[in-house]
Specification:
The chain has about 200 residues and is α/β, with parallel strands linked by helices. The chain has one domain: P-loop containing nucleotide triphosphate hydrolases (Rossmann fold, 3-Layer(aba) Sandwich). It has 7 helices and 5 strands, in the order E-H-E-H-H-E-H-E-H-H-E-H. The protein has helices at about 35-50, 60-65, 75-95, 105-120, 135-140, 145-150, 180-195, and strands at about 25-30, 55, 95-100, 125-130, 170-175.
Length: about 200
């Protein structure tokens, strides 16, 4: 008896699951006590609950490690912002939502960070937390405005050091007229609109 000719079994195509997750950097710029950190953490909670990878690059933490030794001169603030922009872009290009609550008072520093992202094709959103200095100085979460008024601190952003307001941010938040969840929801809506969520 001759063996039946071998008929190859139909092959199932090798399926590769493509789950491309879009990362992005969301830079929250604004004065001390504007609400940058609070909004970033509220956003992080919501996004993590949806299963997204999120990192908050907090200004104070960064200054303790990555930017240890830097002060608040124009040059040092620029260096600080560029370092943070570099790390944020690395995270974002790998699918992370990098939330950056950092003052970044100078337009040219912010523009350089935006350009770095554009060059790499990584989404970048600038959110201006535009709380007026009068409100920030009453909030005074870290007591910096009081220190400045008492003559114990100089070079405070928005008081005796410049803050160059973003001319065309992707979003402008007036936190003095919003609850924290409302401010965070506005950023989420922007992320959805830009196809990041
Ligand atoms: N002179 C002066 N001006 C502004 N801010 C000051 C200053 N001294 C200390 N701090 C506190 O430093 C926190 C981190 O600053 P940043 O790294 O975000 O600033 S910058 O972008 O490099 O300008 C910043 O944090 P936030 O309050 O969360 O904005 C300030 O609380
Ligand atoms: N809509 C809002 N968004 C963010 N913070 C708000 C808002 N309304 C009131 N706040 C309060 O303002 C303060 C902002 O502090 P923080 O987030 O540390 O500011 P920053 O990081 O800009 O220095 C917090 O005490 C927060 O509860």
């Amino acid at each position: 008896m001759t063996a039946a000719p071998h008929t190859p079994r139909p092959t199932t195509p090798h399926t590769v699951q493509e789950t491309h997750v879009t990362g992005a950097t969301v830079w929250l710029t604004g004065l001390p006590s504007a609400g940058k950190t609070t909004i970033a953490h509220e956003l992080a909670r919501t996004l993590r609950a949806r299963g997204r990878a999120v990192e908050v690059l907090d200004g104070d933490e960064i200054r303790e490690f990555l930017s240890a030794g830097l002060g608040f001169s124009r040059e040092d603030r620029h260096t600080n912002v560029q370092r943070i922009g570099f790390v944020a872009e690395l995270l974002a290009r790998n699918g992370v939502l990098a939330l950056v609550p950092v003052i970044a008072p100078f337009a040219d520093s912010r523009d350089a960070v935006r350009k770095r992202h554009q060059t790499a094709g990584t989404p970048y959103l600038e959110v201006h937390v535009a709380t007026p200095v009068e409100v920030c100085s009453v909030r005074d979460v870290k007591g910096l405005y009081a220190k400045q008024a008492a003559g114990e601190l100089t070079g405070l952003t928005g008081v005796d050091d410049p803050y160059e307001e973003p001319e065309s941010p992707d979003l402008r938040l007036e936190s003095q007229h919003q609850t924290v969840p409302e401010s965070a929801a506005a950023v989420l809506a922007l992320l959805r609109e830009r196809g990041v969520l």
